[in-house]
Amino acid sequence: MKNQKNIRKKNNKSNYIANKPGGRSGARLKDNRNPAKPAKPAPKPKKSKTAPKSDSPHTQTIQWFPGHMTKTKRQIERDLRLVDAVAEIIDARIPISSRNPDIAQLTAGKPRVILLNKCDMADRNATKKWVDHLSSEKIRAIPVDCKSGRGVDQFVPALSDLLSDRIAAYKAKGMLNPSMRVMIVGIPNVGKSTFINRISKKNKAQSADRPGVTRGNQWFTVSKGFEMLDTPGVLWPKFDDQTVGERLAFTGAIKDNIMDIELLAIRLLDLLKELKTPAFVERYDLSDDDLSLPSYELLSVIAKHRGMLISGGEADTERAAATVLDEFRAAKLGRITLEYPL
Ligand code: G4P
C-alpha cells in the first residue's frame, strides 16, 4: 500500500518535473490556524546573496497566512514608549529571512541590539561578516548561542555601551541608579524563550508591578540597572517571497505539517549539494556522481544509503526527506548559513 502511495507520489513529481520546468508545484500550502484571514501584502524583503543559488526546477508555493498581527503591533507601539532600547533576536543562519520587516519599522528610532542567535549552527565566517555588516550600518550585533549560553554575557555590556549617553543624562538629572528598559522582539522559533530563560534566571517580575503596561507583559531584571520586556504577542514571519518562506521552513520556523516535505528537502538538497560540506558528503556517503544528480534522484540515493526502503526495495524518499530536514536543523550536515550580506 505504502509502496503504491510512494510510486503515485513519485509519478506525480516526475510529471511535474517534466511538465513544469521552472514553474510552481501544485502544492499550495495553508496555515490552517487562520485560513479566513489572508495577510496584508508584506513589504518586499531585502534582497540577499544566497550561498549558493538553487538550480532546481522544483518550487512549492508556501501559502503562509500569518494571521492577525494588528493587536500585537499596537501593543508593541504602545509599550515602546516605556523602553529605552530594543533587542531583536534573529536566526544567524538566515539573518534576513528571520527578520519581520514590521519590527524594524515599528521600532525605528530606538537604540537597538541584534542578537544573532543559534550561531552554533551557522557558519563562523558568515556570522562574522554579518556582525561587520550590521556594524557598518551602526547596529550592534552580538553572535549568541543561547542553548549553551555562549556570547550571552556580552549582552549587558553592549547595552551599557549603547545607552551610555542616556544613563549619563538620567544621572545628571539626579537619578542615582537609573534602570534601563529593553524590549525583546523576534519572530517565533528564533530562541526568544531560550534567551530569556538563560538571562533572566530567577529575576522575573510580573506586569502588575508596572502601571500602564499591557496586561500579560513580562518584565525581567537581567542585571542591576537593566530590565527587559518580553514581546507582548507573536509576530509571525511575513513574506511575499517564496525563497524567504523556504528558508524559514528549512530552519524549522515554519512547521513541516503545512508543506510537502519531499519538495522542501529537494530544495534544500539543491543548496547542500553545491555547498558540499564535508559533514553532508560523509554523513550520506555521497560520491561526486551522486552530487551531480538532480536533487530528487539524490534524495533516493540518500534513502538507499541510509537503508530507508519500502517493500520492493524502493527508496523511501518521504522518510529520507524528513531525515535530511531534521539533520540540517540539528546542524548535523555542518554549520551552514543560507544568507550573506551583500
Ligand atoms: P521562541 O521563543 O523564539 O519561539 O524560540 P525558543 O526559545 O522556543 O527556541 C526554539 C528552538 O530553538 C528550541 O528548540 C530551542 O532549544 C532552540 N534554540 C534556541 N536557541 C538556540 C541556540 O542558540 N542554538 C541552538 N542550537 N538551538 C537553539 P526545540 O527543539 O524547539 O526545543 P528543545 O527541545 O530544545 O527544548
Explain this structure.
It is a single chain. The chain has 342 residues and is α/β, with parallel strands linked by helices. It folds into two domains: 25-65 and 238-335, Conserved Hypothetical Protein Ylqf, Chain: A, domain 2 (Orthogonal Bundle); 70-230, Rossmann fold (3-Layer(aba) Sandwich). 39% of the residues lie in helices and 15% in strands. The protein has 13 helices and 13 strands. The chain has helices at 2-19, 70-80, 101-106, 124-136, 155-162, 164-172, 192-200, 242-250, 261-275, 278-283, 288-291, 295-305, 317-329; strands at 28-30, 49-50, 61-63, 85-91, 112-117, 140-143, 180-185, 204-206, 218-223, 226-230, 309-310, 314-315, 339-340. The strands form four sheets. It has a seven-stranded mixed beta sheet, with helices on both faces. Helix 9 (261-275) crosses helix 12 (295-305), helix 9 (261-275) crosses helix 13 and helix 12 crosses helix 13. The longest helix has 18 residues, at 2-19. It is elongated. The chain starts with a helix and ends with a strand. It binds guanosine-5',3'-tetraphosphate (G4P). The site of guanosine-5',3'-tetraphosphate (G4P) has 15 residues, from helix 7.
Helix and strand composition category: alpha/beta
Secondary-structure element order, as H and E? HEEEHEHEHEHHEHEEEHHHHHEEHE
N-end to C-end Cα span = 49 Å
What are the low-pLDDT stretches, counting only 5+ consecutive residues below 50? 1-55, 205-215
Q: Tell me, briefly, the overall form.
A: elongated
Give the name of the CATH architecture of the largest domain: 3-Layer(aba) Sandwich
Q: For this structure, what is the CATH class of the largest domain?
A: Alpha Beta
Report on the biggest sheet. Answer: 7 strands, mixed
Query: What's the CATH H-level superfamily name of the largest domain?
Result: P-loop containing nucleotide triphosphate hydrolases
Residue-averaged pLDDT: 78
Q: Which fold does the CATH topology of the largest domain refer to?
A: Rossmann fold
